[in-house]
Design brief:
The complex is a heterodimer of chains A (111) and B (116). Chain A is mainly β. Chain A has no helices and 11 strands. The chains are: A mainly beta (111), B mainly beta (116). The interface between A and B is medium-sized, with 24 and 26 residues.
Chain lengths: 111, 116
């Protein structure tokens, strides 16, 4: 039973355009959401997070949007750069240290 | 400073053998996590250590899996009598002391375990 789902295994975007990565969750008790980025042969690195009391959080080129009624969050990257090519994981927590992870979306930025 | 390190980076073993995976967290980080990532899946929580508290072992898939953390620093994940379904990348993460459990987790590069 996947509580956090990333339905797109991969996404290809032209350099300079906007990348939108999506994540859906089923557990309404989740109150904190994170995005991690992973390059091959490396561990995931933290990118951005959002608390359930907010609907948007922005950090430079990265913005996370949370729609609680739809149980959906998205990560927007604009403009997309070649170094953004990586696997992006969405994760959620229920107020403690345990994170429930999606399966990841591989983002490919085309020059 | 140095990040989280894990060893070995790759491990190939035969079914039924025991394996030990090592994690060196970032100095000063009190929390340490072990995860497993099977092919095409998200990270699966295995075990959590926080300071001197009893570890949360709720994610360990069977009693063949165990982990220790010595002196509040280095951790070893042991898998006994390995099975082919244990093949995965095992990731370790650590996080600094703070409150609320919302701390950023810093990951090591992982150990890729292949059980033949």
């Amino acid at each position: 039973d996947q509580q956090v789902k990333q339905n797109s295994p991969s996404l290809s975007v032209q350099e300079g355009r906007i990348s939108i990565l999506n994540c859906d969750y089923t557990n309404s008790m989740f109150d904190y959401f994170l995005w991690y980025k992973k390059y091959p042969a490396e561990g995931p690195t933290f990118l951005i997070s959002i608390s359930s009391i907010k609907d948007k959080n922005e950090d430079g080129r990265f913005t996370v949007f949370l729609n609680k009624s739809a149980k959906h969050l998205s990560l927007h990257i604009v403009p997309s750069q070649p170094g953004d090519s990586a696997v992006y994981f969405c994760a959620a927590s229920r107020g403690n240290y345990q994170l429930i992870w999606g399966a990841g979306t591989k983002l490919i930025i085309k020059p | 400073g140095a990040g989280v390190s894990q060893s070995p980076s790759n491990k190939v073993t035969e079914k039924g053998k025991d394996v030990e995976l090592r994690c060196d967290p970032i100095s000063g980080h009190t929390a340490l996590y072990w995860y497993r990532q099977s092919l095409g899946q998200g990270l699966e929580f295995l075990i959590y250590f926080q300071g001197n508290s009893a570890p949360d072992k709720s994610g360990l898939p069977s009693d063949r899996f165990s982990a220790e953390r010595t002196g509040g620093s280095v951790s070893t994940l042991t898998i006994q009598r390995t099975q082919q379904e244990d093949s995965a990348v095992y990731l370790c993460a650590s996080s600094p002391p703070s409150s609320g459990g919302r701390d950023t987790q810093y990951f090591g590069p992982g150990t890729r375990l292949t059980v033949l």
